[in-house]
Design brief:
Order of helices and strands of chain A: EEEHEEHEHHHEHEHEEHHH
CATH topology of the domain at 1-70 and 159-166 and 191-246 in chain A: Rossmann fold
Strand order of the largest sheet of chain B: 1-2
Structural class of chain A: alpha/beta
Distance between the termini of chain B: 26 Å
Strand content of chain A: 15-25%
Largest sheet of chain A: 6 strands, mixed
Helix content of chain B: over 70%
Largest interface: A-B, 29 and 19 residues
CATH class of the domain at 1-70 and 159-166 and 191-246 in chain A: Alpha Beta
Number of strands of chain A: 10
Oligomer: heterodimer
Shape of chain B: globular
Structural class of chain B: mainly alpha
Distance between the termini of chain A: 39 Å
CATH architecture of the domain at 1-70 and 159-166 and 191-246 in chain A: 3-Layer(aba) Sandwich
Number of helices of chain A: 10
Radius of gyration of chain B: 21 Å
CATH superfamily of the domain at 1-70 and 159-166 and 191-246 in chain A: P-loop containing nucleotide triphosphate hydrolases
Radius of gyration of chain A: 18 Å
Shape of chain A: globular
């Protein structure tokens, strides 16, 4: 049984199939990359998994249990947390309260005690201790993205969906971000990440899924994907790259 | 750490100031020759303070602009009209208050479940529509079904009315305080900041919104019951007056919704202005002045009077600190 699995996942926006008959799976402990050109349906697939949207038709399973059709807050409490492509922090709340909300409302059957130790630990984990009491709106994009990560981790997820966490970061921030993903994996959290930054994708993912026009066109290890003719065609729009190389 | 000092001071402010105000309020009816007018004036203060606090409880943190205040307040009026008529009360007054609150709660719960998925201006329009709908339905029922226009409610003494209002105020402040301080308060603010993110962080946004909306409606309904025993004559015009939806909202905005005192201060100041203007030679200009003050508030004091006070306080503190470090 896979940790997270989708079968024939489809959704239409008007006449457009944003995600079309996609089968996917994620196993425990993996870092799975989700790549594809703009408009390929990556974020839509995240929205389907986290229940911001419902697949029609198609089904999504988490630990063998069907989760499509559930409310987003229930999905989160089951153990699937996410971040957003366009950051959605609670901008008027300080960093610590952003994370605290995840800790207070996220995981099921939480002990009624003090969540402060774990909140502080997570803020330290993502490197925001110095700005813990600053309102989120006053922080840079890179920091806000880390708030989202800490907030998501505070819900004690088994699967973390990272939507373009590395877009718009400078090289230093990018390296830090890659380190962070590896550290998240070491915490025992399975990661699915949408990313355009190839250095990051190739560097940390165990497996990559490629979407194009809503369809899954390739799947494999970073090495396989880097050598795949279809993927190169989709990204570069030429057909003779592969043959030239050969 | 000096954490204990801070929390003691905080506790003093949190409990001490309200306690002093409460004791002062309890003694209002005993102030000699001024008492008769004083008790009426203070009752009016309390009505608007409760409405403003109840309104800010939901809208202040979630940002959902509700104009349904008059609908729930009007329900209170009709609870009094039906259960506490002049011909003879069917139940004691406190039961009527509870019924008014309960019916408002249930209606708000149902309305909330249907409409709280509406956003922004759509929600505001619907809630205002609810007031107009209630007005029409009740008017139809009175005139066409019962063949009457209004119902006379049993008159209560000024003291009884006053102490009931003090009681409801205490409940309102306590409820507002505990919601604000609890994890639900944090959840409400997260909804106000980014509802989608809140939902994906495990917050049951629909349930929290509906519950707090219904709790604030219950308080509004309770006030309506008491005011009806003061005005004694209840018809749809007085019960579902849209001004009751607007005034407390404007008062709360004027006072500032960042903390609990804001709406209370805004309501007190505006009710007093209203009282002065309406009894003096300027009575025709009340709405004009009200409007001008409001425009000025929104333009120059986005966080209201409390925001202004906070800023001034910070400046004084800053100046003192600078002076100290220089010295």
């Amino acid at each position: 049984m896979h940790l997270l699995e989708g079968k024939g996942v489809t959704i239409h926006f008007g006449g457009l199939a944003a995600v079309s008959d996609v089968d996917f799976y994620v196993d425990k402990g993996e870092v799975v990359g989700l790549i594809g050109p703009n408009g390929a349906g990556k974020t839509t697939l995240f929205n389907l998994i986290s229940a911001a949207l419902q697949p029609k038709p198609g089904e999504i399973f988490f630990k063998g249990k069907k989760i499509s059709g559930m409310a987003p807050f229930k999905i989160c409490r089951l153990g699937i947390a996410r971040t957003f492509q366009t950051v959605k922090v609670f901008s008027n709340l300080p960093v610590i309260d952003n994370v605290r909300i995840g800790a207070l409302f996220g995981a099921q059957k939480r002990l009624k005690g003090n969540v402060n130790p774990e909140v502080n630990e997570l803020i330290k984990f993502v490197g925001l201790t110095e700005v813990a009491n600053t309102p989120a709106r006053d922080l840079t994009l890179a920091y806000q993205k880390r708030i989202e990560v800490a907030r998501a981790l505070a819900t004690k997820p088994e699967v973390l969906l990272l939507d373009e966490m590395m877009a718009g970061l400078n090289p230093t921030e990018l390296t830090e971000s890659m380190e962070l993903v590896k550290k998240i994996q070491q915490r025992g959290v399975t990661v699915v990440m949408i990313e355009h930054v190839m250095r990051a994708i190739m560097g940390i993912c165990d497996r990559i899924i490629v979407l194009d026009y809503g369809k899954k066109i390739a799947e494999g290890t970073p090495k396989e994907i880097a050598g795949s003719k279809t993927v190169i065609e989709v990204y570069l729009g030429v057909t003779n790259v592969g043959s030239k190389k050969a | 750490m000096n954490l204990s000092n801070i929390s003691w001071r905080k506790l003093g402010l949190n409990a001490g100031v309200p306690l002093v105000i409460l004791i002062a309020l309890i003694f209002v009816p005993f102030y000699g020759s001024w008492a008769d007018y004083g008790i009426t004036l203070f009752s009016l203060f309390l009505v608007y303070i409760i409405l403003a606090v109840a309104w800010a409880m939901f809208t202040g943190s979630t940002g959902y602009l509700s104009l349904a205040t008059a609908a729930f307040y009007g329900i209170g009026f009709y609870a009094a009209a039906l259960l506490y008529p002049a011909e003879g009360a069917l139940v004691p007054l406190f039961v009527v208050v509870l019924v008014g609150a309960a019916v408002s709660f249930v209606l708000a719960f149902i309305v909330g479940a249907i409409t709280l998925r509406l956003k922004g201006i759509y929600f505001a329009m619907f809630t205002l529509g609810l007031v107009l709908l209630m007005y029409q339905v009740v008017n139809y029922w009175l005139i066409s079904v019962l063949g009457i226009r209004g119902i006379v409610v049993a008159l209560e003494s000024n003291e009884v009315i006053y102490y009931y209002l003090v009681g409801i105020l205490v409940v309102s402040i306590l409820v507002a305080y505990f919601i604000k301080r609890s994890k639900w308060g944090l959840a409400l603010r997260s909804i106000g900041d980014n509802e989608e993110a809140a939902a994906h962080t495990g917050v049951n946004v629909t349930m929290i919104k509906i519950l707090v909306f219904a709790i604030s409606a219950a308080l509004m309904g309770a006030v309506g019951v008491i005011v009806a025993t003061k005005t004694t004559y209840v018809d749809a015009n007085t019960a579902f007056n849209p001004m009751i939806s607007f005034s407390p909202a404007l008062m709360a905005i004027f006072g500032g919704m960042g903390n609990l005192y804001g709406p209370a201060i805004g309501a007190t100041i505006f009710t007093y202005i209203q009282e002065i203007l309406q009894t003096g030679s300027l009575k025709n200009y009340y709405m004009l002045i009200f409007g001008l003050i409001l425009i000025a508030t929104i333009l120059y004091l986005p966080s209201g009077m409390m925001g202004l006070i906070q800023n001034l306080w910070n400046r004084i503190k800053g100046a003192r600190r600078r002076a100290l470090t220089r010295g």
